[in-house]
Amino acid sequence: PAGASWELCLPSKTKTELIALCFSPAAFWGDIALDEDDLKLFQIDRTADFTKHSDGNARHTSGGLGEEVSSENATSTDHSDKAVKKDGRQNRTLAGSPRRKEHTDEPGMDAHPSARVRRATTARAERIWPGGVIPYVIGGNFTAELSHRLRCCSYVGRRGGGPQAISIGKNCDKFGIVAHELGHVVGFWHEHTRPDRDQHVTIIRENIQQGQEYNFLKMEAGEVNSLGETYDFDSIMHYARNTFSRGVFLDTILPRRDDNGVRPSIGQRVRLSQGDIAQARKLYKCPACGETLQDSTGNFSAPGFPNGYPSYSHCVWRISVTPGEKIMLNFTSMDLFKSRLCWYDYVEVRDGYWRKAPLLGRFCGDKIPEPVISTDSRLWIEFRSSSNILGKGFFVLYEAICGGEIHKDAGQIQSPNYPDDYRPSKECIWKITVSEGFHIGITFQAFEIEWHDACSYDYLEIRDGLTEQSPLLGHFCGYEKPEDIKSSSNKVWMKFASDATINKAGFAANFFKEMDECSLPDNGGCEQHCENTLGSYKCTCEPGYELTADKKSCEAACGGFITKLNGTITSPGWPKEYPTNKNCVWQVVAPAQYRISLQFEVFELEGNDVCKYDYVEVRSELDSDSKLHGKFCGSEKPEVITSYGNNMRLEFKSDNTVSKKGFKVHYFSGMWLYSFRAAVITGTENALWLGFASFPSSGDHDHFLLHSPRAMYSRMRLPCCCAPDLPSALCECGKWLLKASFILCCFLA
Fold first, then answer.
1. Which residue has the higher pLDDT, 359 or 572?
2. Span 508-544, pLDDT tens digits
3. Which of 10, 398, 442, 728 is 20 to 30 A from 713, comparing alpha carbons?
4. Which domain, by its residues, includes 631?
């Protein structure tokens, strides 16, 4: 889990808890074993180690007759670092790591082994992790591009007080390789760089890839401390025989023959060797008494129980069960020297993975303690004796349990053994309580429970209260994550149950205290409306308004699609000054055969004739590249603008500096006014007759007006005819001038 820590005091058994950090998808052939800063630490001639040419036996190929071929376990898991030279800079950015790179690894084919940095343990005290604890988080902020560049890499030991990276790329997410990388974090160099390595292996310079020779340099005694342990061919920190080889069958490291004439296997990535465990325990001064317990049930006791523990004993037991479970300790026997505050002989139980975890109890005397239950899946138990008055000791049974009462404002609930399959026939009940005045929000990160129509086999049940009779919030099974859940109070009851048959991966859910920010006196800081969401809230605006950049204030919405025949358009924020950095587009659409006219009532924008800062742009049709009527700015009102068709586009833009009052414009939609005028002059003795062959309508109202000069400024005496009916013939006699006009009126019926 993120935010946890690794234990460094390894048990005497090889059953060691390791966490694999699997970042994908990048395969990567190589690593950086040393950089220039690291090379300076050697304080030696870089070529001094290679001045001697190897003899014929040294130029060994693994397939040669009479030679032992490396076993599968000894196959290299490392690769050439040619690729990393190109993108090592990106690797240095991982997890906020310092600039200086210490070590990277990656597995692959034997033809391309890698160079990991030197092993044996560090002799520099500042690289030892305080308390034997390595805090870590699993980063989740990698982009796809960065994930593609992720490699297998690690610093050696602790690097200052800030964050440092360890990444596990594609093909590295295997136990042995993860254990190898964690070995570097703990403080191990590579075994073959020990100062005494020439007594145990031969480096074959001729077979090393060009440019990779530095990976085979010896370290000085002042930089490495083997803590009295002998050279370990079986170490998980040892190179394979063909690491950085020019060819798959060429050796770069050749073990010397033992007394029986056999060359030991090297480069295994299967397990921690006994030497690895011994060195780690020495490096971090782990107590000789105690162990790490990882079974779901077990027991332990004081040394010598029941015959009496020795004086000045120091033992540490670390219990780790599957995530989602807790640990219950039951003391069945207790007999320790009793002192005030248990100052001398005592057994101490802490709720976590190290000696600074919260104290659950400190016990001495002969009174059996009440059962102790952890709040998580880890416990630290430490026993010390310092007196010469000794008792029998103690005996403890432990078991993993699930469920329980939880009193905190945020946390995670997991099915037992998550992310591995949950156990059969489990029943876990959690009773969650957060602070008064809050609700509880629950979100699911993963969900996979055996499916059934009625969720009768395996299921998760959530209730709005602390009892099985509280109102049901949900009864879930299957493979789809449930929707987010919100309680009506500060209490929730959760039950997970599995039957005896099919098991799945289970679930992981986060809970947290939830409040309704919209119920606060300031309405959540929202100017208009506040909508509460799970874990947060959001501000919204009335129709016609939109949120400003602060996501709380509202301003008049800008732009839109308009189909009304007439109306008014104003700049955003009207009648106040318009805001900066706005881009608004109004698209006005009228019926076919209509035209749209704009008449500006107010116009005041930043700018001059150039109109490069703030401006209004008017176009016929709706596209940004359609016919332009004009681009306007300044304080001079544009003339009336009429579209060429039934669409018009009006765009307003403001820059990030000066703001003005803006504009107010009225738009009108109507039939397009057109006319055809003809005049016929005849003699006074003649008559004028006008007849119609056709009278089609090009709109809703085609009118025909006929008048004489005498009627121009007086009551019109001649008829007005409307299409589509064919007008009657008209006749005028005398000395009149006949004038005919075709008019498409802009007035509606």
1. 359
2. 999 999 988 888 889 989 988 999 888 889 999 876 6
3. 728
4. 558-671
Same domain membership, residue 333 and residue 207: no
556 in Cβ contact with 582 (< 8 Å):
no
Report the CATH number that the domain containing residue 133 is assigned in CATH: 3.40.390.10
Binding-site residues for Zn(2+): 180, 184, 190
Does the pTM of the predicted model rise above 0.85?
Answer: no
Domain endpoint, select from 671, 687, 708: 671
- Is 632 a residue whose pLDDT tops 80? yes
Is residue 663 located within the same domain as residue 570?
A: yes
664 and 681 share one domain: no
Backbone angles phi, psi at 443, to 5 degrees: -125, 145
- Is 542 labeled as catalytic in the residue annotation? no
Would the pLDDT of 682 be above 70? Answer: no
Catalytic hit among 7, 102, 106, 181 = 181
Please report, in range form, the residues annotated as the binding site.
180, 184, 190
- Mapping DSSP onto H, E and C, the string for 400-412 reads EEECEEEECCEEE
> Count of residues for the chain?
749
Residue 749: inside a domain: no
What are the percentages of helix, strand and coil residues in the chain, rounded to 5? Answer: 10, 35, 55
- Asked whether the beta carbons of 329 and 343 are under 8 A apart, the reply is no
Q: Which residue has the tokens 């690769």?
A: 79
pLDDT tens digits, one per residue of 49-63: 444 433 333 333 322
Give the β-pairing of 730-733 and 738-744: unpaired
